[in-house]
Amino acid sequence: MSILPLVHYYENNKSINQILITSSTLSSAIILKKLKLKKTVHQFLPIDLFFIIGIFLNYWRPAIAIFIESEIWPCIFKNLNKKNIPLVLINARITKKSFNKWIRLKKYAQSIFRYITSSYPQNAETFQYLKKLKVKKVKNIGNLKFIKNPYDTNSDLEKKLSLILSRKKIWVAASTHEDEEIISAKAHIILKKKIKNLITIIIPRHINRTNEIYKKIQNLNLKVILHSSKKISLNKADIYLVDTYGETKKFYKIAKTVFLGGSLIKRGGQNPLEPARYGAKILHGRNIQNFKEVYNYLKKLKLSSLVNNSEQLAKSINFKSSNKQAIKIKKLGNKILRNATTELNTLIKNAN
Predict the structure, then answer these.
(1) Parent domain of 339
(2) What is the pLDDT at residue 154?
(3) Any residues with CB less than 8 A from the CB of 224 and at least 6 apart, and which?
(4) 323, 281 in Cβ contact below 8 A?
(5) Treating both helix axes as pointing N-terminal to C-terminal, what angle do 74-82 and 106-113 enclose, rounded to 10 degrees?
(6) 3-state helix, strand, coil in the chain (%, to 5)
(7) For residues 72, 78, 82 and 88, what is the CA-based torsion angle, rounded to 10 degrees?
(8) Within-domain flag for 171
(9) What is the pLDDT of residues 65-116, one digit of tens each?
C-alpha cells in the first residue's frame, strides 16, 4: 500500500489529530487493523451518490481530502468542492484507455477535474493527461512506490527453511501467470545442467492454480515441493512452489534474481520495486506497460533485463546481490517522501 509511508509520517506528526482512511477492499481494512495505529481510522468508501457522500462528509468533517492512486469519483469531488474541502490527488495514475474515455466527454471531464486543488502524478504520461484535462496544479514529486513500507518489519522466512535455502543456489519467479511457470521450470532445466544444488522458487499470482501448476511441472520430470507441506528436507528438490498468500516478500529478501510474471503474457507486468529494494536483479518480459517508468529507472541502474523465453531467462540469472543499487533506490524513496510531505504539509496548514 503506497499510503503507508505517509500514514507512518503523520501518525508521528503532533499537528495531526486524526487520519481517516477509506477504501473499497476488505484486504486494506485487514492490513490497517493489524497495524493497530493510534490516530488512524478505517472506513469503507461510501457509494458515489451525492446525498450519501454529503452525509458521510458531514459526519467526518475532513479538513482536507487526499486521494492516493484513486479512481475519479464525480459526486465525491463535487461534494468536497461544495464544502470548500481541498481535494488532492497523489501518486495519481491515468491510463491511456481511461484518458480516452474522459476526453470523449471533454466538457463534463473538465467540470469534474477542475475541482482538484493539487495533483501529483506518478508518471509522465499521467502528468500530460492531467494537464490536458485542465487540472489547476500538476506537479511531479516522484512515485510513492519507491518509498519503503515502514511497517514491513515481520517478513522473514522461518529459520530452518531460511538456513536450508541459504545452502542452495536459488532464484525466484514471482507473480507468475499461466505458461510463465513452465517457462521458469524449463529455465531451471537449462541451469541445472551446469549448476548443482539449484532450487527454483515459483510464486504464482493465483494460488488456486497450484494443482494445475504442480502437475505440469511434474510432467517435466522435476521434483516439486509445496511450501504448505512444510517439508524441511529439500534434497533433490527442483521447484519449491509457494502455495500460500502473503509470503512473497520473505522470498524476495533471500533472492539474488527475481523474474516477475505478468510480463511474458499480456498483463502489463508487476511492480518490480519490492524485490529490487532488497538488491535483487529483476528479469521481465516485454509487457511491462503498467510500470514503464519504474523499469526505465531500474534499467539505468543495470538492475533489470528483458527476457523473451526460457533460454534467455536461464542465461540472465545470477546469484549476486546488487546492494549498491538497492541503496540508491532507498535514497530516492526517502527523497520522494520528503517531497510528498513538504507539499502535503503546506496544503494541510492552509486547510486548517
Answers:
(1) 4-148+332-351
(2) 65
(3) 214, 217, 218, 237, 238, 239, 240, 241
(4) no
(5) 50
(6) 45, 15, 40
(7) 10
(8) yes
(9) 999 999 999 999 999 999 999 999 999 999 999 999 999 999 999 999 999 9
